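re: ur msg from earlier - yeah i can do the D-malate complex, just paste it... oh wait u already did. ok heres what im feeding in:
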Amino acid sequence: MSKLKEALYRKIEEHRPRTMKLLKEHSDVKIGDVTIGQAIGGARGVRCLVTDTSYLDPMEGIRFRGKTIPETFEALPKWPGSDYPTVESFWWFILTGEIPTEEEANSVLEDWKGRCEVPQYVFDILRTMPRDTHPMTMYSAAILSMQRDSIFAERYRKGLGKMDLWDPMYEDASNLMAKLGTIGAFIYRLKFKDDEQIERDPTLDFGGNFARMMGVDAPYDDVARMYFILHSDHESGNVSAHTIHLVASALSDCYYALSAGINGLAGPLHGLANENVLRWTQQFMDKLGEQEPTEEVIKTALWDTLNTGQVIPGYGHAVLRKTDPRYTSQMEFCQKHLPDYPLFKVINMIYQVAPGVLMEHGKAKNPWPNVDAQSGVIQWYYGVTEYAFYTVLFGIGRAIGTLANITWDRALGYPLERPKSLTTAMLEEIAANSSAPTFSKAS
Ligand code: NMX
Ligand code: MLT
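and the outut:
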């Protein structure tokens, strides 16, 4: 058994009695009520998921296993010469809640070496797809195609007790994690670099290898580490994480679940916003031509978008009510590495103007930027200008938190997810019989 699997098993044994006690002694304790506004309005604010890998506070933003982003970056072991922790050390952390020693983080790196080879048939399938297929479709298809290799599905078929299911889930999750960087970089070079592929280097970590296989020089390895960790987890209610949790609750394996979640991430209101931010900004700059961008012209362009009924990509959030700390973290990276880059200056100008415009527009509950508003600039600066690829980067990161989360779902024996639906007529009847004020709105 690998060091990480042993550590995880110890944590699972410690945690199980807590869940059992809650279920046995406090099952009927209420944690919230659901209003008609929430039932129709996408379940905003309904508290009905349990996730220990991360927690999202509306004002503070994300904490991974209790740590803020700066605390996470500070605490975890780093690759020599690098400013950001390795993906391998973060994987240990998100799975166990413990900061690994360097030796423990290296044990993940060694373990993934034995798992990282992507089957040739995956590359063959990707090469058969029309070249104008969206990279997210390719990424999702690649993950799904490997389902035939699921250890979970095989062991389940053979008959495995409910409380042992976490073990093959962990195996599938680790097998996937070790391969996703290679798959992402392969898709990038297949689509945008005439299929000229670059071999991985077994002496490098996940981030270093990703940069190498993308064909982008340092510090892109650190960009990759930062990017994957920032996008890893946003508790369980977001579309991708929730989908992954939901699909896995049917005891579908990691391949089915992750592929499904990636399809949700591909929506423009979710992960695809990072592609749309760059498209919007580039179109805006193209229109400007030689003219210097000013706050006034940006304001006009934002209003033009809103007046056609479209959303401002990269702004707003279903939970956050402040600037996303993942935005801030990337902005700090830009201030350090590319302070005078014209595109960064434009993105900063949008940040000065967009919240005010959205407040005046009066619809968005949160006028502040989310993670997607800043991420494309960094990619663009390092030469990854093909913005259709950006959501794949998000999707590689998102796998880390969600695969850890569904491994824990199996460890704690969470059941099939199956909320109850009502008809509109039933809601009307409930409303008619309710003493609640008729103007009440979902929070
Ligand atoms: N631009 C214009 N209108 C907006 C925006 C925005 N950025 N954000 C919210 N609104 C509108 C929203 O469309 C809704 O309008 P209507 O009443 O006509 O349906 C109204 O404001 C109320 O929406 P909220 O309750 O503030 O937001 P909700 O929780 O429904 O949706 C998002 C959250 C993230 C989907 C929404 O803010 C949005 O569409 N943002 C732009 C797309 C984006 O950046 N998505 C990425 C989110 C982060 N991620 O990576 O997933
Ligand atoms: C995410 O990272 O999943 C997004 O910020 C969306 C969300 O949390 O709802």
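cool cool. Residues 166 and 409 are 8 Å apart (CA to CA). ping me if u need the other ligands too
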